[in-house]
Write a structure and sequence with these properties.
This protein is mainly alpha-helical. Helix content is 60%, strand content 0%. The chain contains 5 helices and no strands.
Length: 86
């Protein structure tokens, strides 16, 4: 199983920024990497909202694994995103 590098909130914020800025999403920039690097932190509130939504798994997700483990993992990602979590 792959383990990602970097905080989940940053990864989600980068996806949201890329979606907004890149021509591959809703934006108009053919190469949006620099713009994403410069602006992803602006998308942290939305990324945290996504994480808060993900705390409760769907019925299909719960059937596929342990919902308590899922919730602890998402809560850990939320805690990791807090300013004092270094």
């Amino acid at each position: 199983m792959d383990i990602a590098n970097g905080a989940l909130v940053e990864r989600i914020a980068r996806v949201l920024a890329g979606e907004r800025l890149s021509a591959n999403g809703q934006g108009d920039q053919e190469s949006a990497g620099r713009a994403v690097n410069a602006s992803w932190q602006d998308y942290r509130p939305e990324a945290l909202a996504v994480l808060h939504t993900l705390r409760a798994p769907s019925a299909a997700m719960a059937a596929a694994g342990d919902p308590a483990v899922w919730e602890r993992m998402v809560l850990a990602a939320i805690a990791e995103a807090q300013p004092d979590a270094s």
